[in-house]
Write a structure and sequence with these properties.
Structural class: alpha/beta
Largest sheet: 7 strands, mixed
Mean pLDDT: 87
Strand order of the largest sheet: 12-24-23-22-19-20-21
Low-confidence stretches: 622-656
Distance between the termini: 9 Å
Number of strands: 25
């Protein structure tokens, strides 16, 4: 093990091109006759050797050495690193000389020298989890357009190699000595960033790091309570330099193949007054057109402000004009005049002629009224914000608004006239485009929102973390992380549920309470719960009854939805409702026992608090929370290093 210490010191003396350095070593080697030779050799290579005793404390040892250092920059090094690039100190200084840069570090390689150990550190939502960026990737292989090959901002550096200006380090009070073994580097960089400084990792400066080589006997804790109490909300907010759509666990800067995504106001496509231009397709024959007239009339009454254009065959042009329902009539003969002759146009020829009829016009809504799907392809050639029509099974997943059509089944008599079936599509459009007055209306006769008080000091967010089946439940650590972020953002957080739910999940309730959520469990009957939830500024819950109660009152409602059932069917039916889901390939699975899940419940485990928090903020628009949420946003890309670094006395220390 001691050989690593000597290699590190020899590399600083012989393989480092920057010579204005002062080497201070913290000597934690036991005093015994067999160690005297090693101690003398260390003294011959270092400028200052400081004997230290007592339990190993990385933070305290480093802080002790800074008292003796003379340099303008402190460079903290573990004793198990080797130099790869001889100008590594010059590379670091080039960025440390820039304004607002508070800490700089090299890219650390695994002992093979060909794979990355750490090129910065990113936060994860789980308690105490952090990830070494680009770990185990080939050092010379460009990821994500070369992001791993250029200097970049990051949340933290690994403590094995950190350069910090002397004055800034002293002003910060050094490393947190209450964190003896772990999380001290993360804590330091988080405090540094809170002061407005940025952290930079420079891949052009490379060291090999034999991690834990000299202190393998020390036992590290999985979580330091001091660290987690201080930074839990920051972990929950997600890493500022890692896009939410990137894989969070691999660290390889890859787009997540199963991203977390919102399903906004499932079934609600917009507000009715937003529909200004509408295109209707009714391309078949006279009888079909006549049966559609009641649906056309219903549509005109529902959207009186819209300009409605219709596309019909030439044989229906005069009937369309006589109806008085349309602002413009387009003629397009997709079918032959005689129905038994079938289609007049096929494939690309049909699409080309149809595009010529429309002449580049755009619409807010395009609707195909033919139940059979052979005209549905034409909707894809309409420049429309929303497309609607009949679906059949999974044939047309791209329709924004659809009504299921069972098809024409031999020996099966239908229950409704064709005209009624056509009106069902219009009814679906009326539901998809509510009026502004009804978009977030309460379902209740007496609107419970009248119980809101206007003198609330802080926005109120109500959490219901339970569900009737564990496969629907979000992990307790994620709930606690969300609560911590909301509290830090300046919100009042209260949890609800039944006494039986609290008894079944005491650890979950305790975690939420520790994160700052008030316990209101068991305090309401169902009618009282309706009125209470209506006073909230936002509700967050699992797929359960209280979620639907919240949506029914018209308040902003966020559902953390598992892959157990279809997320559209069970989303909060409210214009201000959103389901947050992870788009896993196995959903919906309809497994009613989480033990049957072969993927360890990834549909919920990998929805992180930050991804829910942003939707709470989007729906509430709380100014206090917005300010807190953006306080740690990543800055613009850092400029290239200055051409000539200033001459500095340097200090390095090792831990034996």
């Amino acid at each position: 093990m001691r050989g690593r210490v000597f290699k590190c010191l020899e590399d600083l003396r012989q393989r480092t091109s920057y010579k204005a350095i002062e080497i201070i070593v913290l000597d934690h080697i036991d005093y015994s006759p067999e160690n005297l030779e090693d101690k003398n050799r260390i003294r011959s290579l270092a400028d200052i050797v400081v004997p230290v005793a007592g339990p190993f404390n990385w933070s305290r040892f480093n802080n002790m050495a800074t008292v003796l250092a003379k340099g303008d920059v402190f460079l903290f090094l573990n004793d198990d690193v080797e130099v790869v690039t001889e100008d590594w100190i010059e590379q670091l200084l080039g960025y440390l000389n820039l304004p607002n840069i508070g800490a700089v570090g090299p890219r650390l390689l695994l002992p093979s020298g060909r794979m990355v150990q750490s090129a910065g550190v990113s936060l994860m939502s789980q308690p105490g989890w952090a990830r070494n960026d680009f770990a185990f990737s080939a050092a010379d292989y460009a990821l994500g357009g070369g992001i791993n090959q250029v200097p970049r901002n990051c949340t933290s550096l690994l403590g094995a190699a950190i350069a910090v200006p002397r004055d800034l380090f002293i002003r910060m009070g050094g490393f947190e000595e209450g964190l003896a073994l772990t999380f001290n580097d993360l804590d330091f960089h988080m405090r540094l960033r809170d002061l407005g400084y940025q952290v930079v990792v420079v891949p052009q400066a490379e060291l090999i790091h034999h991690e834990k080589n000299s202190r393998a006997e020390l036992v590290e804790s999985e979580m330091e309570p001091l660290y987690w109490k201080r930074w839990q909300a920051r972990h929950g907010s997600g890493d500022a330099y890692w896009h939410p759509d990137l894989e969070r666990e691999s660290g390889l800067y890859k787009v997540d193949a199963e991203p977390v995504e919102p399903i906004w106001a499932a079934g609600i496509a917009g507000v009715r007054s937003d529909i200004r231009r509408m295109l209707l397709l009714r391309l078949d024959h006279v009888g079909d057109f006549i049966l559609t007239l009641p649906a056309f009339r219903q549509l005109r009454a529902a959207f009186p402000q819209a300009r409605i254009e219709v596309v019909v065959g030439a044989w229906n042009r005069d009937l369309a004009a006589q109806s008085g329902l349309f602002d413009h009539i387009h003629v397009f003969n997709l079918y032959a005049a005689r129905s038994s002759d079938g289609r007049a146009l096929l494939g690309d020829a049909a699409a080309e002629q149809f595009a010529g009829v429309l002449q580049g016009r755009s619409y807010d809504l395009a609707v195909d009224f033919r139940m059979d799907g052979d005209t549905r392809f034409l909707l894809k050639h309409v420049a429309a914000t929303t497309r609607a029509g009949y679906s059949q099974g999974v044939a047309y997943p791209w329709l924004d608004v659809s009504v299921e059509w069972e098809g024409n089944l031999p020996q099966w008599r239908k229950a409704a006239n064709g005209s009624i079936q056509l009106q069902r599509l219009v009814s679906a459009l009326e539901l998809a485009f509510p009026t502004a007055e009804t978009a977030s209306a309460s379902f209740w006769q007496d609107d419970p929102r009248v119980h809101r008080t206007s003198f609330k000091k802080l926005p109120l967010v109500v959490l219901h973390p339970f569900a009737g089946n564990e496969i629907k439940m979000w992990p307790a650590a994620h709930w606690a992380g969300l609560a911590a972020i909301l509290v830090e953002a300046g919100m009042t957080v209260e949890m609800i549920g039944t006494a039986a739910e609290e008894a079944a999940y005491p650890d979950l309730v305790q975690a939420l309470a520790a994160a700052g959520a008030r316990n209101r469990i068991g305090q309401f009957t169902l009618p009282q719960l309706v009125n209470y939830i209506a006073t909230a500024d936002c509700f967050v819950g699992s797929d359960s009854g209280p979620k639907h109660i919240a949506a029914s009152t018209g308040i902003p409602t966020v559902a953390v939805q598992s892959g157990f059932v279809d997320p559209v069917t069970w989303s909060p039916f409210n214009a201000l409702g959103v389901s947050v889901i992870r788009r896993v390939s196995c959903a919906p699975c309809y497994l009613d026992d989480v033990a049957l899940c072969r993927r360890n419940h990834e549909c919920m485990r990998k929805i992180f608090p930050a991804q829910v928090f942003r939707h709470v903020m989007a729906l509430t628009g709380a100014a206090m929370g917005m300010a807190a949420a953006h306080a740690h946003a990543p800055p613009p890309l850092i400029p290239p290093p200055v051409s000539a670094p200033r001459a500095l006395a340097r200090k390095s220390m090792g831990d034996d």
